[in-house]
Amino acid sequence: MAEPAGPFHVLRTGTGRFLCYCGPDGTVYVTDAMEVWAGELGGCSALGFRCPPEELGAMLRAALVHGAAALSLGPGSATLRLPEEPQCPALALAQLPAAEARSQLQALVFGMAGCIESLERRLEGPSKKAPSGVNFEDS
């Protein structure tokens, strides 16, 4: 399973919080950390709209950053709505089967852990601390 490419955005709905992110293959994922929904950036045509995937990706990122995206859940599916984008107002998401969702969540957790480690290294700069990331001087 490929690690997530980000960016990562938290969507808040009446029923809770969801993490929305993109995979390196252009798939959009939404998860509540128990279930995962996925859809292709070119998937808006399935809802009757035509929009190039790269254009939808830019619109999706902008909508998420500005809090303009809305998520609605249905049985086995979800819809990510971009109400401010009349050309591509929605992206259909399918709920992943349990085994695939577990694999995707595992890739997400370890991908984010890798991002955190990288950021920590960049913030520390050149250092002679233990390579494990544990600072024994603070013990």
From TrEMBL:
GO MF term set: molecular adaptor activity
Family annotation (InterPro entries): PAXX (IPR027873)
Lineage: superkingdom: Eukaryota
GO CC term, one of those recorded: site of double-strand break
GO biological process, one term: double-strand break repair via nonhomologous end joining
Protein name: Uncharacterized protein
Organism: Chloebia gouldiae (Gouldian finch)
